[in-house]
Predict the 3D structure of the following.
Amino acid sequence: MMHVSVPTSISVSDYLQRSGLVAQYGDLSPQVHAILVTLRSYLQCVAAPKVQWQYQVPELGEGGACSLFGELTDTPYDLSAILGGQTEKNLIALQQLTKIVTFYRENSGLDWFGIYQARPNVDAQQVLVKLAYYGAPSRAEFPLTAEFAKASNNSSVGLSGRAKVINDVAAYLGTGGEYYTCDPKVQAEACLPLFDQSGKIVGIVDAEDFNKHVFTADAMALLVAVCLTIPAYLP
């Protein structure tokens, strides 16, 4: 079998600096490089998975908040519209992203994970759109606006490029932190940026769990390796 190099967006050290993670976790470079080797092999060897072009989303409450937990819309969200159709290029991109999602699930054991790309939606509004994920249904698009970013980690990270890690949601809220609640069972969340090779923010990943204090140094090294790999496969 021919082995093809899987590119990363920027260097590990650059990513850790740009995202602000080096201040929280120190130099994770050795762990990240080791995981990248495993992830590259995985992407080359695993067969193309089935792509989820449509997925269920919750009803949005007042102000667009995801407040109606457990109540889903009648019509699922269709990625075809925002991506410009079910083209071969889009299919290949979503297949690779689905592989990465599966890799993360198998190696993290966390309850929820999603990959979001920054792009204009059908109304020409700049949003983060969820391209691939596992876990409970959640909203498809997050507005990339300063106003929405006040309560949304996804939007905040998508605008700033600075990672947001909350290992205890209840404690965070207790100190006055703003938090966009989709699933009340979530006790910890890590939202990390995606950069292209020029350093431009091109999206985010969001990882969540129903337990506190899950985002250890090893857990963050896995997440960073995934973040460095994703941009090469965005549609």
